[in-house]
Design a protein that fits this description.
The chain is mostly helical and 235 residues long. It has seven helices and two strands, in the order H-H-H-E-H-H-H-E-H. The protein has one domain. InterPro entries: ExbB/TolQ_transport, MotA_ExbB_proton_chnl.
Length: 235
């Protein structure tokens, strides 16, 4: 049983490292597609948003376009909406100043978008930090087996020592080969995350400046009326 388990340790380590490598490259493909899609969506939305003639049209665009900036804008417009009918019940959400509510909504939505972009980052960091040690474990185990075999046979020639130990060192080499791309991919997407976060913060700041011009309020009735007129014009 022990001999069978011992013979499976090094191959198991190597296959585990191969699995880590596959996961790293899969995350690279998935995250690259995510960032490219988000970049295209945000480009379309910002073009429509900043070309809008007024804030009501911009609100309409925010509900129609996908992407992180569109969702941030939608959360901001939710904070600016004014109730057209008097409230019969007091709600804590409405006791907050609209300016503060806008800042809170924008900040919370940015955090949600950041968490979405951070998916997979922890896996890459874990692979990059643990793969060399996993490979070293396989090497140590392989060397231990080689020394035990040499002790049993009593042969200490160069051929008897170099072959098994050289084979055991493969695990360390594979571990390093897996860790280096994982770390590079992690750093690449960490940089992309910082740039995306900066773009979202800049947009939120500009949105706050626009909202201040409308006294941090827009009417649901005005939006509904504008949407109705747009439907009539289209028909």
């Amino acid at each position: 049983m022990n001999d069978s388990l011992s013979s499976m340790i090094v191959p198991g380590v190597l296959w585990g490292l191969v699995l880590f490598s596959v996961v790293s490259w899969a995350i690279l493909l998935v995250k690259s597609a995510q960032y490219l899609r988000q970049k295209a969506q945000n480009k379309q939305f910002t073009k429509a948003f900043w070309s809008a003639p007024d804030l009501l049209t911009a609100a309409e665009h925010a509900s129609q376009y996908p992407g992180s900036l569109a969702r941030i804008a939608s959360s901001g417009f939710e904070a600016l909406l004014v109730e057209d009918s008097p409230r019969t019940t007091q709600q804590l959400a409405h006791t907050i100043n609209r300016s503060d509510r806008l800042e809170r909504n924008l900040r919370q939505q940015i955090q949600k978008e950041r968490r979405s972009l951070e998916n997979g980052q922890a896996i890459l960091a874990s692979i990059g930090s643990t793969a060399p040690f996993i490979g070293l474990f396989g090497t140590v185990w392989g060397i231990m087996e080689a020394l035990q075999s040499i002790g049993e046979t009593g042969s200490a020639s160069l051929e008897a020592v170099a072959g098994p130990i050289g084979h055991a060192l493969i695990a360390t080499g594979v571990g390093i080969a897996v860790a280096v791309p994982a770390v590079l991919i992690y750093n690449f997407f960490l940089r992309r995350l910082k740039l995306a976060s900066a773009d979202m913060d800049d947009f939120a700041h500009d949105f706050d400046a626009l909202a201040s011009r409308s006294a941090f309020s827009i009417s649901r009735q005005a939006i509904a009326s504008k949407n109705t007129n747009a439907v009539r014009e289209a028909s």
